[in-house]
């Protein structure tokens, strides 16, 4: 499904409650009351649809990118939270405290306790959920936070739907009530898919660690081999969620870009840097350790850029992983297009697969340029960071106009390089980037 259709489908779902409310024919109330109902309807719809923007549905993240998917998830969740938390304070019209005498379709605001208490619970839990989301770093492990966040959000959504259908003027309509419960069922299925169905599917296609080797300073290559199946269908630029030495149903998953190429065979290779938790124990992992893979994900692929005149790869640190996948597959396909790799690191001993890169650059269409921020004495290559000036020295104006530029690295680098490329006239559609940090 094209990205434009996904956007239209999302807008249709989130606006449907407003449209269904507008055609019910109720007598108009004061503007603030209608605004209060409107923001509540829109906010609840966004929260329910948010469950499919979790990043684990390839039909979405594969079209617009994992980073875009998660950024939208964050921004829309914050907007919906503000709407929901604000809407009780917007009401200004007639109100009744007499339970049972103000049915949902009447003009006065219904304070019947049967409909009011689910809204109070949802309102309080939603506020707590947002506070926890904003302050989660350093408090929760990402895997545990992800599960807790999803379960709490589903509870909030359930109480929100119960409140809307019991106390809402418009949601008491059978058709709109059916839509609310239908969206809630989709939300519940989304969590079931991620935490039950997908793990069950992974258990039927196990992997094992076939090798662990040191590539550079605090950087390792992890190789996984399929057990009893043919492996994974993927494209260069994809990434995978992997769990090593855990059960198939486990919260301990980590996303890593795939460094191997489909042409290399069924084994998957990952370039991983020691950053704590699982990654700090890479050197202790033994061959034969059972593993599970949920993949492929991501949009850092060249599928929609087959007509590009050349391929520019700009990597920072372990962002070299998807670039290795691209280079290995391009060579396997004997792709004649010129390609240039700008590879940024802090020091020489952080360069990954330097010998392989040099070998691929000899006599082929690849040119490799290293950029070091802390170069050794006598270094004659690029120094500092990948700036607009560095890019201009290595790319002709025609290349900036006709090549595709693939970026992967730390978020500050990605943003700086993207800005530099656009300042040099590179079209945004010719810039591919994806990041795993969304703060």
TrEMBL record:
It comes from Antarctobacter heliothermus. It holds the Pfam family Ferric_reduct. It comes from the Bacteria. Keywords: 2Fe-2S, FAD, Flavoprotein, Iron, Iron-sulfur, Membrane, Metal-binding, Oxidoreductase, Signal, Transmembrane, Transmembrane helix. This is Predicted ferric reductase. InterPro entries: FAD-bd_8 (IPR013112), FAD-bd_FR_type (IPR017927), Fe3_Rdtase_TM_dom (IPR013130), FNR_nucleotide-bd (IPR039261), MRET (IPR050415), OxRdtase_FAD/NAD-bd (IPR001433), Riboflavin_synthase-like_b-brl (IPR017938). The chain crosses the membrane at residues 37-54, 75-93, 113-135, 147-165, 177-197. Its cofactor is FAD. Residues 202-303 form the FAD-binding FR-type domain. The keyword Cell division does not apply. It is found in: Membrane. One of its GO terms (cellular component) is membrane. Gene3D superfamilies: Nucleotide-binding domain of ferredoxin-NADP reductase (FNR) module (3.40.50.80), Translation factors (2.40.30.10). Residues 1-21 form the signal peptide. It is a multi-pass membrane protein. The lineage of its organism: Bacteria, Pseudomonadati, Pseudomonadota, Alphaproteobacteria, Rhodobacterales. Its main location: membrane. One of its GO terms (molecular function) is metal ion binding.
